[in-house]
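P.,

For your records, the input lines for the assembly:
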Amino acid sequence: METNTQILSTEDLRSQEYFLNMGPQHPATHGVLRLLLTMDGEIVKNIEPDLGYIHRGIEKMVEYDTYRQIIHVTDRLDYLSSHMNNEAVALAIEKALEVEVSDRIKVIRTMMDELTRIASHLLWWGVMGMDIGALTTFMYAFRDREMINEIMEKTTGARLTMSYNIPGGVMFDLHPDFVKDVKAFIPHMRKVLPEYDRLLTGNIIFQRRMKGVGYLSAEDAISHGASGPVARGSGVRCDIRKKAPYSAYDRVEFDEIIETGGDNLARYQVRMREMYESLNILEQLVDNIPEGPYQMPMRTLIKLPKGEFYQRVETARGEFGVFIVSDGKKNPYRVKFRSPGFSNLNALIQAGRGVKLADLVAIMSTFDFVIPDIDR
Amino acid sequence: MTYFGKIFYGIKTLWTGMKVTGGYFFPNITRKKYVITRQYPDEPAVVFPRFKGEVVMWHNENNEHRCTGCQACEIACPNGSIEIIWKREVDPETGKKKKMLDQHIYHLSMCTMCSLCIQACPTNAIMWSTNFHNATYDRGLLTKVLNKPGSKLMAGVEE
Amino acid sequence: MMNMLSINIFQTWLEQTHGIWYVLVLAGIAAIYLGFFAVAGLMLVYLERRVAGYFQLRLGPNRVGPWGLLQTIADALKLVSKEIFVPKMADKLLYKAGYYIVIIAALLALAVIPFARQIQALDFNVGLFFISAVSSVGVLGILIGAWGSRNKYSLIGAMRSGLQMISYELSAGFAIIAVVLMSGTLKMTGIVEAQKHTWFLFQGHLPAIIAFMIFLISGTAETNRVPFDLVEGESELGAGFHTEYSGMGFAFFFLAEFINMFIIAALGATLFLGGWLAPFGITDGLPAQWLWGIIWFLLKVFVLIFLLMWFRWTFPRIRIDQLLTLEWKYLLPIGLVNTVIMAWMVWKDWLIHLG
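Structure tokens returned:
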């Protein structure tokens, strides 16, 4: 019997690949990141990030600024970790000038760091829920983030771009309500974090969306220079707070959060558990803020000695480094910011190949990009 | 996990999530218990005293300010938001010519609220105001002259 | 010219066969339904926003009119006043046909919903079949509209929509069959009358409850709501199939989506919760039975709609392969087995009859 059916090989059945422009205006990129995706149906074959849509030339700009003036631009890099960015510059300048700041300054900086970290992770949690379709998480996270914002606003006068650190101290002394507010915030946060777990983490749809998706191996994480929760989710020990303690991190007890899954869920869990650790740090410090000056005496016009100075801190997204080359003038000769987002974006290309479009959105939200941090 | 075990586990977790949202929804119907948003124009915004709204110059009741026109803030400002125009005036007491403030121009549209000018000011002439109602239809209105017309330096500031 | 001619032929046919009054009554009924369509759509949008507000610790619309009731009307006016934008490379015919098909399908399905005894535009003996047939026409509108707009995001959304509709029609069908087995008729009024003493949800106890759950899940999927809103997938696809639509074009899609939600809830209320019948006949002796019927019916519909909204504001979105897994590995086999059990129960008469 003769049949007309022709057996098709897999080669014939292969569908045509097409390009999809994800961004620069796309809800999931949280900014102006453009990803050029090579797609096969729903499956992402390749990712090409295209940067530069929010490039402001900050590194060049600060070459014309005095050292005191550098700090306020670092707010605009990773605006969710603005306090840590400020601190990195301040620490680098203090390191160059060999200034030892008082214990009070160290503790204030550490507490502010941890508050900023919680605020950043809360925003990430809310937005991540939105990215995978649970729209209510956003408002719940913002409700709790608002408490931190108010603490910040009381002390520093700003809610996001605080510019609170200055070389040799902090801009203002702590607000009298600070200790009371933080003490009210910690138990509140401990109460709502399990609620977050009930709402999202335990949800079967969420678990299915997260588990085993966007795998990034430890080797890949290291070779792409990933840091922060992204690398720690792959089991890489890279917490600068432990490796090279700065400020008051050498006097507090906390665990470096490591998850070995390497998938979305691991990165998610790292951030969720980090919030608990940050609360631990806050709890240890809130009763022990030492007395002392909040600003060290420093010259108005700071001139760094000739040389190269590097300081790294752990922001909410990973390792943030400031590299200052000084030729002894009042302006730096060259400043380089090592931003965590840029390196993590490289790791995204590794983790995001071969997943579905919906998964790519989820992976991007677990990588937690802040686009101005990538572009600078 | 078995086939039916998975189904029941799934339904259980979904119901757990629904309990969380439902726990906020039902009290909100009648009492608005958990509503966290502020109805802004009706309810006043909560602004804390240290809030960095805009830079203002403090004047006392005799229309005197503390600015000597030393330009420290202008130098400290990272992005040129502050311009000081100064003049030479004859001091009535000593009869010598002296550098005086003519206009303290502040470009709010360029200001990044970094506080460096206020920190740099040797006489505490400028300070933060908590005013944030700065929206205008004309960008030119955001360039402000901080010293009031006809104001002069407070006596005894320069010592 | 062609249009005028065809309308004239239709009109003469109606007048010759049925007389002018019949035509007028028909037009009146159509007008009432169109009015209901618009009002229900706007009210549902308002309701959704209010409910979302309360779920999200907000107030929702509260500025325009008393309790913000006029907010959606203001929004609709805004949408009417906007330019209807057609992308340059779009296939104009398909692009414009898209929303008409969607909205006509939604309207057609509305015709057989019994609001109360005798209050129904069309009550014919295959009403249930008609609904499930017509509601799958809507997806055609989504598909061609998205294809016509020449946008890759739209196309991905449309393909997902087709996949989703084909899959979930099956399990929705099996859930409906379970009810038909009990009622023995496809006529909507007949189904409601068969629940005179006991609602089908309780009459068929366990299998009926399973069928109801399957119906709710596949109904949520057919109306493209969270957790099955992959067609829109606003964080993935921008706005999915209606990315390129503006003004009234967008408003039609939006309205049709909410009317579809109403239809699914109405169908659920009719099939499982006794339609216009009062629970335990508590309002049976009272005057104005038709009004009580509408009240009970809308109340039941509202409960189901609220359930759908509760789902929407709690759950994350599922992925396309998980969507298919859920359908083909869970809902469909369970629905099949459930239908067999139901048939067995009806045969052996193991149903619960109260009163």
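Two observations worth noting. Chain A touches chain B at residues 65, 68-69, 71-73, 75, 136, 139, 143, 146, 150, 153-158, 161, 163, 166, 171-172, 175, 195, 198-200, 202-205, 207, 300 (CB under 8 Å). Chain A has one domain: 59-375.

Regards
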